[in-house]
Amino acid sequence: MKQLPQYARYATARLAQAVVTVLLVYVFVFVIVTLLPGDPVSDRLSNPEYGYSKETIEQMLAYFQLDQPIRQQLWVALERLAHGDLGLSYASNLPVSTVLWTGIPATLQLAATAFVFAVVLAFTIAVAAYFLPGRFGGPVLRTFPSLFLSVPNFLIGLIVIDVLSFQLGLFTLSDFRSPTALIFPAVTLAIPASAPIAQVLISALDNAGAQPYATVAISKGIGRFGLFTRHLLPNAALPTTTIAAIIVGELLGGSIITEAIFGRTGVGTVIEKAVTEQDVPVLQAAVVLAAVLFLAINLIVDLIYPVLDPRLRTTEAAK
Questions:
Q1: Distance of alpha carbon 80 from its chain centroid, rounded?
Q2: Of 45-49, 90-94, 254-258, where does mean pLDDT reach its minimum?
Q3: I need a labelling partner for 96 at 20 to 30 A (CA). Which of 77, 107, 111, 286 fits?
Q4: How far is CA 305 from CA 110, 111, 118, 267, in A?
Q5: Residues 148, 195: contact at Cβ < 8 Å?
Q6: Tell me: the pLDDT tens digits for 214-259?
Q7: 6 CB contacts (<8 Å, ≥6 apart)?
Q8: CB-neighbour burial class of residue 184 (10 A; exposed 0-12, middle 13-18, buried 19+)
Q9: What is the value of pTM for the model shown?
């Protein structure tokens, strides 16, 4: 029971760090976008191709406080952010949150499915490499992570489309309601993502197996499976969890490329459209959203660490 307040302080400190980091990212992105050469806002509003009326231009200038100094614009933006308002889209005049939400569910669905596939694939490779003897290909499996890392994501996607869709007819690119429309892009995304997880897990298992406690356990007559489940796997869980959290962030970025290859609608489509239309508020919100998701994942991992390794609770409490 005494460990509960210690863990609460630890969790509160990590949460405060995450909130401060999000604010710093928002301010950094805002300042960078504002100080960039050129003025996409005025260029867009003054372009007759977009058909803005004089009243609409005055309303948008007043809303974004564009006639005020950068410090005033930033303060107004932070006030809106505190109320959950990410601003208005230049292109659609809709709330930015509404524009982003049109792509977020599909991207999260793809990234989450790919993450599950990547973890399963990495775990299968690592376990098989540990248990299979050399004559059954165990050492060969250790080369798979390097092989997966050397193949670009877009090349895997093109091979999947050519072989599985065009030649074997297992799915069609235009049928977005079919489960295969999610599974095959997820597999494409999962193959390179599984490589770092498998590599770290294999190395962690090898390191744990070389420790004195493993030798002692073997001398006491524990079986290979018992040694793996009771001693090696728990000790390998910490570094593997760390790399898995990093992979989640990469999956979100990789989802955008995979969506473009398979023609899926998601955040990638929203960002591509925002870049084309110079929709700065949407781009700014997309960057902040990516930072928030990455920090949230790392926060969850930080909160899991003390649960996986009780020694960390003592270390954090001593700080």
A1: 26
A2: 45-49
A3: 111
A4: 26, 23, 21, 31
A5: yes
A6: 888 888 888 888 888 888 888 888 888 888 877 877 777 777 778 8
A7: 313, 316, 317
A8: buried
A9: 0.74
